[in-house]
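Internal tracking record. Fields below are filled automatically when a chain is submitted to the structure queue. Please do not edit lines marked as system-generated. If the sequence contains nonstandard residues, flag them in the REMARKS field before resubmitting.
Queue: standard
Priority: normal
Entity type: single polypeptide chain
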Amino acid sequence: MAVTTSDLEVVDRIGGAVDAVGAAQRAASLATRSIKREAKVQGLQLAVRCCDLTTLEGSDSPGKIRQLAAKAMRPSPADPAVPHVAALCIYPRWVALASELLRDSGVKVASVAGGFPSGQLPLDLRLREIEGAVADGADEIDIVIGRGAFLAGDDEGLFHEVTASKNAAGPAHLKVILETGELGSFDRVRRAALVAMAAGADTIKTSTGKISPAATLPTALVMAEAIRDFWDQTGRAVGLKVAGGIRSSKDALRYLVIVKETLGDDWLSPDRFRIGASSLLNDLLMQIDKQRTGLYSDPDRYTID
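SYSTEM-GENERATED OUTPUT FOLLOWS
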């Protein structure tokens, strides 16, 4: 897809200010929606399918990657009805191994790259890291924007950064992390989302998970509304990923409600919605067991990630 600075015009057309109080109230209202038992089981299964099972630790090792690859393919070995997750998200160092382990499984290999989590490396080094991860077999690339330039008002700088990253990613799906906890306002979150989408992002993502606050329901709502408005203006569908601090099934279902009510059923799939997950997956599995049997499972039944 060819992208030029003229695509920034859509940002000015639909940028606008965000009603912060209204966004918070709307998110709080959606969070109270009750979900019936059958729909809840379906929602929990969907949340599993939309998970990016993630490990981004200095202690990551070949053994841990093998363990998580197995879990990504069969989250609940005793229950084959539980689907595989969407992707395994890792550092570039582990992409070749993960690609070998997950080949033909349906689970994507997602690699953070481009100077994650700070986004402060020189752009040429960031692009080389992206290219290397794709060459090693990454299906998806998660980059983080350089917040400093954007906060200084440099929309074009952010635009060119994302465009260059998209070109470097080639056939890989590009997820652009806004690190919303550092942007300071919903207005900036919306504008950063629009600039990233105009520059070619395939998915926009809330957070690296390395700072607080990370994902929040109002922020996800603001980003979903930006995706909806961008779709209305351009006809191009962009995905949403929420990540950072999402540990309970209840929270996962709340994000699914926001997506459904704001973007519709077409976004309720791993192609257009993801949840960054480490500890969340086990809670989803426990809740699926609870809905089916009426009893909570022993947490020791599941591997600790």
